[in-house]
Description:
single chain; alpha+beta; Uridine Diphospho-n-acetylenolpyruvylglucosamine Reductase, domain 3; Alpha-Beta Plaits; 3 domains; four-stranded antiparallel beta sheet; 14 helices
Amino acid sequence: MTSVHEPASEEAVAEIVVAARADRMPLSLAGGDTMAGIGRPVQAAATLTSRKLKGITLYEPAELVIGAQAGTPLAEIEAALAEKGQRLAFEPPDYRALLGTEGEPTIGGVAAANLSGPRRIMAGAARDALIGVRFVNGHGEIVKNGGRVMKNVTGLDLVKLMGGSWGTLGLLTEVIFKVLPIPETSATLVYSGLDDERAIAALSEALGSPFEVTGAAHIPVGEGYQTAQTLIRIEGFEPSVDYRLGELRDALADYGDPATLPGESGDALWRGLRDGGPLISLSDQAIWRISTRPGAGPALAAGIRAKVQGWHYFDWGGGLIWIATPADDEAAESVRAATRAHGGHATLMRAMPELRAAIDVFEPLPEPLMRISREIKTRFDPDGIFNPGRMYAGI
Length: 395
């Protein structure tokens, strides 16, 4: 069993890193530890966690910006924002049920993983809303980059680099995000019975319209769904939502007569899709999350299912595919072959450690990009003590 370091200050984090570097002691970096099952297994002598770095460090509702220490629970951030009628626009997911983990999602984990929900098609990813970071690198140095406004970066944009680095370059100690107001209401159009190609065509028309769609998903028949459902979400002031729903119904008349889910019912459905909910019960299956061009989504999913048994659903208008497959090398190669053929990036979100150690968990990089990744890792973490091998073997 590895030891756990829980520093309560940024300076204490730096001291631990300096000592670990001197001892050549690998560290597993963690926040709330709710996503520990994503990535290759990390062989580390100790765990360094941000869970005691808690507290909102700044909140300026009028400026639409919030900052907090990295270990601050995401729920605390969302509660503080909700009191002022605001939210994190990119809809951060909660994968505890999918991964079978406990703990508490943290705001630092949101930034480190750069994972975003259905609203990404309108609001962008977590990385796009992240405007400032503080972190401790592998030298034991405290680094600050970005600030409180979007145009406050000079030189290297380390903010975007740290977003999605999965703790391989440093331990985030503070993050600053732009936020947006919570809309007055929302509604979801539900079209029934469309196959994958027709559904993605409908979603593409909706996303190409001027009606500001904030959710576009398709759930095929199977795994508890007796009828395929194609979902389009609209948010905003109530008169605007009503008008845009009517216009979309007219524009998409060829795809059927949709039902309408009001805000609360629709919100619960979108949370489930955000968190991988339709796949949670498939406990013996590997779960993959694949990003691609929306138009390529149906063919890519079909390419995988032609080789292995599985079930999938689409988010981001077809640009994000969640798919369950057998948990073996053959299925993994089928996923990789489909992404090579149709264009895309696949991440293994859930599997036993043995499989995650044996295959590529994140999309393999061409050698020129892998070389750049190695050089970046060396600059930030010269002795390779942070999450060694979590994203790619050897770095």
